[in-house]
Amino acid sequence: xxxxxxxxxxxxxxxxxxxxxxxxxxxxxxxxxxxxxxxxxxxxxxxxxxxxxxxxxxxxxxxxxxxxxxxxxxxxxxxxxxxxxxxxxxxxxxxxxxxxxxxxxxxxxxxxxxxxxxxxxxxxxxxxxxxxxxxxxxxxxxxxxxxxxxxxxxxxxxxxxxxxxxxxxxxxxxxxxxxxxxxxxxxxxxxxxxxxxxxxxxxxxxxxxxxxxxxxxxxxxxxxxxxxxxxxxxxxxxxxxxxxxxxxxxxxxxxxxxxxxxxxxxxxxxxxxxxxxxxxxxxxxxxxxxxxxxxxxxxxxxxxxxxxxxxxxxxxxxxxxxxxxxxxxxxxxxxxxxxxxxxxxxxxxxxxxxxxxxxxxxxxxxxxxxxxxxxxxxxxxxxxxxxxxxxxxxxxxxxxxxxxxxxxxxxxxxxxxxxxxxxxxxxxxxxxxxxxxxxxxxxxxxxxxxxxxxxxxxxxxxxxxxxxxxxxxxxxxxxxxxxxxxxxxxxxxxxxxxxxxxxxxxxxxxxxxxxxxxxxxxxxxxxx
Length: 528
Ligand SMILES: [Zn+2]
Prior knowledge:
The protein is α/β, with parallel strands linked by helices. It folds into two domains: about 5-175, 2-Layer Sandwich (Ribosomal Protein S5, domain 2); about 200-515, P-loop containing nucleotide triphosphate hydrolases (Rossmann fold, 3-Layer(aba) Sandwich), CATH 3.40.50. Helices cover about 35% and strands about 15% of the residues. It is built from 21 helices and 18 strands. It has a five-stranded parallel sheet. Strands 1-2-4-3 form a four-stranded mixed sheet. Strand 6 and strand 7 form a beta hairpin. Helix 20 (about 485-500) crosses helix 21. Mean pLDDT is about 90; it is low at about 190-195 and about 525-528. Bound molecules: zinc ion.
């Protein structure tokens, strides 16, 4: 009796990397059974049920023999439902119910997709990255869930033919009749709404000149920023304008962001690469796991999903202190290390942190009209919930007040804009120029390009070309406000960014004076 045998390629996702998987199915004589080797325990049982049901409900027969499937490489723990489709197709090939069309030239096709019990094919996470792995293995044919077709196309090279499929029957037909021409059109349902709605234009924000300026500086020097203001003062709206004033992603950056978002299943139905910088705004109850990522198989969390974009943490004083502590690693190292029993992973996590909090328990501390009766002690206790190490990392702090009625009227009638109000795209150009100045400075210093907000060096003042007269004044300010060494360094970095944003090679006392305004002067000793 000859061995009945079927093979297929697929790809798993590990962190944000796609890894090629080879699937083999053998039908052996013996009592009917279905064994899968190389798939995680919990995944096996569910997968077996789905595959059996999908095969039967698509009008095929599940072979009445010992069905043994294996997924290689064996070292890798494979979880999830993406192997349903290639497993089912391998079984159909092994049992002779489907024959590979000659146009496949005997080459192994690739596939991934989850099967519904009725044989429909459902989208899976990480298709951008899985397709990259299939590409790398120089396969020529790939079947993907119809909902993931756009995502797969974005990642595929010209040599890879891709077909989106809706059902197991559909996929079996493609194997026996050959790959259809790719029309380039979406196969079925229209794309879901975008990852993030387009950022609102910063020009629509009225009466918040100082906060807008602080966010502009944050973007210009990649400085973590803290907004303190009452509920309803517009902190969330302010933060959400940032992706619109940050310079666009480079093609390499767009690929990386797409890779991360694909691995987290956020690219389903999205055509093309992610084009706008991410903006993530988790709620105050967010867990450590949701922020760092992890799990089995490991997937990126919010820190990585905000990579090269903005992470907005509102209600900072309400966040669990263990959550706040988690911020340290990405802020210092621009990546997140996941060490688990089964894996060690490093994921990118270079985000612009925008934090917000009420300035006191009632939130009205900065509002006019003396509504706030919080004592200095209670204000100190309230802000004391933000841990020192995080405060050290927040380069800029700005108070945000509710817009005055006058400003609201201006919002209704935008034509009465003050002439100096810049649009997001105008600011974006200025910021891009400031970024280039920072890149050029680092190159002249023989350093890898790093933003002012990330500039760490004992010789910071000299390297950032802060002249002695300004340093002298900065020293006096440090003494007057009892600034820590870190706060003093933050002051110099922000001063440099203010000059860079003006395209001024000279740093002036005026730049320093403005930088001093982004400390929060809640306490005489000046915590920030
Ligand atoms: Zn208060």
